[in-house]
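Help wanted!
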Amino acid sequence: MKKLITNWNNYPVVEASEISFDYEKEIALKLAQSSIPHGNGRCYGDASLSSDVVNTLRYDKVLAFDEVNGIITCQSGILLSDLLQIIVPRGWFLPVTPGTKFITVGGAVASDVHGKNHHIDGSFSRHIVSMSVLTGTGETFVCNATNHSDLFWATCGGMGLTGIILEVKFRLKRISTAYIRQKQIKARNLDEIMGLFAENSGSTYSVAWIDCLKSGKNFGRSILILGEHATVDQVKTDRILLPKEKSLVTVPFYFPSFVLNGFSVRIFNALYYAKNYKKTMDSVVHYDGFYYPLDSILSWNKIYGKKGFVQYQFVLPFDSSRDGLIDILARINRQGAGSFLAVLKLFGDQDNLISFPMKGYTLALDFPIRSGLFEFLDELDKIVADYGGRIYLSKDARMKKEIFWKTYPHVHEFREVLKKYDPENRFVSRLSQRLTLKP
Amino acid sequence: MEENVLILGATSDMAVALARQLAAEGYSITLAGRSTERLSAMEGDLRVRHKAMVTSVYFDALDFNSHPGFYNSLAEKPDIVICVFGLLGDQNEAQNNWSLCFDIINSNYTGAVSILNVIANDFERRRKGTIVGISSVAGERGRQSNYIYGSAKAGFTAYLSGMRNRLFKHGVHVLTVKPGFVKTKMIENIATPGILTASPKTVARKISKAILKKKNTIYVLSIWELVMLIIKMIPEGLFKRLKL
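Answered by r_m:
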C-alpha cells in the first residue's frame, strides 16, 4: 500500500511504500529492490524520501550503557529525546545535539549533525566509537575511523546512501546539572556580531539569532547566545538532573500563507530584539529551553502553511565569510523574504568526506514556499558557491546538481565508496537522484 | 520484593510498550517469546532504561504441549500475566489457505486458552493474581474483511469473561482489553483513521491503570465503545449488505 510521506518542511510530498523492522535479520529479508532509511522525518528535504522507505522507529532498543565512562550503545531508531530521559538523570548528556531532540540516532549520523558547540566538539561523527551498517551488498560491517574507515566516513553525513545504520556506540558528555549558564549579548550589526563570535570562541556553546530584514547601520543586528553547563552551586533547585519532556502547545492547523509576510516578520524581529533590554543578560536555564526552544511548540512547521517551506542553510569559508554574508544578506533583504528564525554560527575546523561543516560562518533561515522562491535560491546558491561555500544536504530539497558537485570537494571519492558498498544501488533517495549520486 | 509481570508474546510493539511502562513503574519483568535475538535486545533496553529486573524465556504459543512445562519451569511465578500474542493475518488468504487460517485461530484463541488454563489453575490455587488478555474490537461482530481473526478474538473474549466469572471469588482479577487500531507493525500497511488509532504507549498506559483499578473490560480509546455500539446495533438484514 502506498501512502504519502513528507519531511518536516512538508515539501516535497512523495507517494511511498513503507516497511519497518525491529531486528536485523528481519530487515535483510524485507528490503525492497531499492529504498532509503527514514527515521522521524525531521530533515527538511528529500534525503529520506523515496518510493520505498524503511522506517527505523521500531528499531529503538538501548543495548548497553557504561555509566562510568559514559558510552552508550543503541539501535539507530531511538530518538534523542528518549536518550535524554535515560542519560540526564545519570549525569550524562549528548556530545552534540541539533536544535531538535526529535531525531533518531541514525539520522544524527546520516546527517552528521552539528550543534552550538561545533567549534569545540565538532559534529556527531567525532564521538562515535563504532557502528554497524547493513550495506547494499547485504553484508553488515562494524566500522569506525580505523575499521572499514571508508564506509564509516561515507556513512557519517552520507544521507543513508551506504545502507541502513543499525547499532551506534558513542561517547557522552559529563554534566553535573541539567542546566545551562546562559549569556546573551546584543550586537548592533554584522561586524559587531562577528567580533563577538571571535572574542567568545572559548565558550562551549555559541549561536546567534540574526535579523535578516534590517538594513542601514543596523544591518545584521543580532543576539549572541552563549552557554556553559551549570555546576551544582549555580542552580537553585534540588532536582538538578531532571529531564523535561512536557510540550507546551501544539499548532493546531496549517496557517494560511498570508500570515507570514515581510511585515509580520519585521514586527516579530523587532520585538525579539527589543525583549533583551540590556546589552548583556545572564541567566541559568534548563537545557530543554536552551537547545530545543521550538520543540515545546509541537507541529510548529504548520505556521508556514500547507505549501510547506524550505530551510536554507549554507556555510562560507572563514576568510570569505564577511563579504559573503554581506552580499547574501543584502539580497535576502531586497527580496524581503526573511524568516523568524535566522541562525548564525561560527563552525570550527572540519574536513570529512561528505559532512557539511567547515571552518567558517553558517547561516540558516526558513522561507515559506512562494512563487519565485526557487529561482531566488538558485541565485543564492551561485553566490554561496562563488564564495567557496556549500549547502547543508539535510535541509535541501531543491539544489541543482551542478552546485552540489562543485561545492562538495570529496564527492567523487564519496561516490566511489558508494559504488563499493552498494554496487546495485539498493539505497536510493529523491536526493541521491536529484544530485546524481546514484541513478 | 517487587511484583513480577509475565509478558507472553513479548516482542510485539504493544508488548515492548507494555514492558517499558511496567518496568518504569517498578515491576520485575519476564519476557516470553520465540525470537531470542529480539528478547535479548529488549532485556538490555529495559535494564538500561529503567534499571529493571528482567529475564527472558523461550515460549512458543503454538506449541501447546510445551505450555505446562514452560510455566512450571519459570524461576519466579508471576503476579500479573499479560497475553499479548496474536496474529491478524490476511482474511483473503486465510479463506483459501487452511494452514494460515489455522495459525490465526491458534494464535488468537487456542494458544491463549492452552497457556492461560495452566496459569488460571495456579492463580486459583494461590488465590491471587491478574490475568490480562489482549482481545479485539474485531471480536464483537463478524465482518467480511477480517472475520477469521474476529471470530478467534470473539472466542477469546468469551473465554476471558468466563474465566473472570470463575476466578473472581478466588481473588483473581481478569482484564479484557479491546485496543481498536494501534499503530503497530500489525497494521503498518493499512490506512487507519487518526482519531481511532492509538499509539502503543497509550495502550500500555491504559492497561497499567486498568490493572490497578481492577477493571473488567476496557477499550483503549473510548470512541471505540461508541463505534462498536453502533456497529452492533445495525440490524443483520442491513449489516449483511454492507461492505465492512
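OP: Thanks! One thing I noticed: The CA atoms of residues 313 and 364 of chain A lie 4 Å apart.
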